Amino acid sequence: MVRVQVPATTANLGPGFDCLGMALKFYNTVEMSVYAEKRLVIEVLGEGAQEIARDESNLVYRAARMLFKKVNLGPPGLRIRLINNIPLARGLGSSAAAVVGGLVAANILAGNRVPFREILNMAHQLEGHPDNVAPALMGGVVVAAVVEGEVRCLKIDPPPGLKVAVAIPDFHLATHAAREVLPQQVALADAVFNLSRAALLVASLQQGRLDMLSTAMEDRLHQPYRASLVPGLKKVLAAARLAGARGACLSGAGPTVVAFADSNLEHIARVMKETFRENGVNARTLVLEPSTVGVRALEIKTK
Q: The domain containing residue 237 runs over which residues?
């Protein structure tokens, strides 16, 4: 039996659409063990307990099966126990956590025969978002690019003192729905705007220049179009900054909003929640720290 812990992730970080992401100290746990007889048993506790599939369509199982197939192993049966804290379809990387957890747990059971780079590419193949799967695997802030189908990425350690206020609206927003509202083409001025902000954001995080985040986390490629799907989004972002956030953005495809700050996190979270409520949306809040560690094994038992 193996038990692995996978962090939540916040992707895009404003301007870094599909290429920037950060791991958070908020975790799902995957327990996986092999049965002698051919059967599949899946137990789900916590978030998604009433929604997550318990058959072969389960995302953790699909990831594990992909790994076992890669190394030409076919365990007769699997028992999978999921202990979930990351809410589903809220923009905090629940799918990435499932895929990464399934792949890494299965790889441990298979004797760690698949190297990291292949795990990363398999995760991207299954989940589709390198800015989520890469930080889930590596921790920290990750800059990722897909080159001829393969993920290339580099990790940055988050600046000391950086924390994240998180406001999680009480409704699902599927990634495919959030992508459907995006235009196929954008103005050159908007592309240049985002390129400059994304580059500034990476430099700001590397140098610990939190004072630059308000500008560096601005975006014109996805948030303006997704605002119609998240009532009050623009007001929540503005309210977070007025409350003291260094920068704020939609987390992934949303609807969750994250605000980066080094002080007054509880106040910022409360203001975001109140602003969502004023716009007809119930939300819960968390104050989290970046996780410098990605997926890791908590326990391994062998007979």
A: 163-288
